[in-house]
Amino acid sequence: MRSSLCAAVLAVLSPSVLAQDVPAAGFSLGSAPFPGASSLAATTTLANGDLVVFDGMHVRQYDSGGGFLHDLGALPAFAFPSFVLADPSEQQVFFGESSTGAIYRLFLGLNSSPDFVVALPFNYDAAMIVGSALFVSAATCGFGCGNEIWSVDLGSLQTTLEATVGGASGPLAFDASGGLYYGTVSDVFPTPPDASAVLHWTASQLAATGVLTQADAQLVGDGFAGAARLAFDAEGGALFLAENNFTSGANRIRRVLGSALQSPVVLEGRNGLSLANLTLRSNSDPALFAAYQPASGGSLFYTTTDFAVLAERIVLTPLRPSASVSGPGTSGPGPFDVALAQGPPGGSARLYVGPSARYHSLESALLFRGLPLFFGLDLPTTSGVPGLLRLDALGNLAQGYLNPGTYQGLFALQFLVLDAQGHVAGTSSAGFL
After folding, report:
1. How far apart are CA 97 and CA 124, in angstroms?
2. 61 - beta bridge partners?
3. Which value, to the nearest 10 degrees, does the dihedral of the CA atoms of residues 323, 329, 335, 338 take?
4. What is the pLDDT of residues 244-254, one digit of tens each?
5. What percent of the chain is modeled with pLDDT above 90?
6. Res 221 pLDDT > 80
7. Based on the domain organization, do 241 and 339 belong to the same domain?
8. DSSP state of 261
9. What's the structural domain count of the chain?
10. What is the reported pLDDT for 325?
11. In whole angstroms, how far apart are CA 363 and each of 341, 373, 377?
């Protein structure tokens, strides 16, 4: 009887109670405010951290802490949300619904009636590279007859069919040069395990006359479990894909570097849930949104739901390795340990030491093959401790040293970390003796 009761309790507990999404090594997860949380809500995160939520009727703007700012506008009746998107200048937002296929416009910071833009039946996603045109992914012919990509001139509101693709509706994202990425989605049920691909059309192809097809696109990668949303990081030139597969229950976020086998997972979602509303926000400092970078490298927001009781908003950020010094030798003669935490699992590290009096709290960013390496140590007075130190399977190490009684208060230290393949991965925060 007791075991039956336990099983019943476990059956009704939400997945968030039993497990959490798992970030890849070099990344960290945090909970983000999700006011007006709904399993169907479409959201986007603005550059300043504000959140815009379209719940099917109301479009509301909240600050980064979840505080209510503005009721931007509302529809007269509920419609199923498709997307909400801010223009590049973040002066206005566009939102689509798939009940009637309508797409509307509102202005940030103001309350107004939504401006009708266009009707594209079964619109799914939208993207913008400039403020004059909105690109929309929509299956306007219904189910089982492919998908289309339309451009909407926001001055004349004229629509132009830009491309046709097979399968169900997929997500869109522009790269920094105006090329368009598209994630294909299978319309077969049960959904095959690896049927999605990422395609790319160049800006010059989009500017030319005529309707593009899948055959005109460059195949960026295939073998993905699904394609729910795309996000492009213009600062780092990186493309991220949220995969959902409703047959297998798999859901994850990858950085697209080719096929699924070549594209590393940055977030493994809880089985059976659905990821959505992918928004990447970079900062102006030199750090990148990449593993083992400082947290200031950027934030990737997403939502996850079971389409019943669970609706969460989560932020993925880089997690930099941390250095620390401990032991009796930190305050006088005796042994002390220098430790590294959260480095690359199975990797290695080189220890660098310099005068603490010459440590710079505003770190320098040194580019190594395009990867910024952050050092607060004064480089002309810094020395490397001979030898590589091995990290354990969790990316940690502790190395013992002896203070003869003259070291305390004099030294700062940082690690240069390498991954298991010997590639430079980043630097640690500083520790002080």
Report:
1. 8
2. 52, 70
3. 0
4. 999 999 999 99
5. 91
6. yes
7. no
8. G
9. 2
10. 97
11. 20, 9, 8
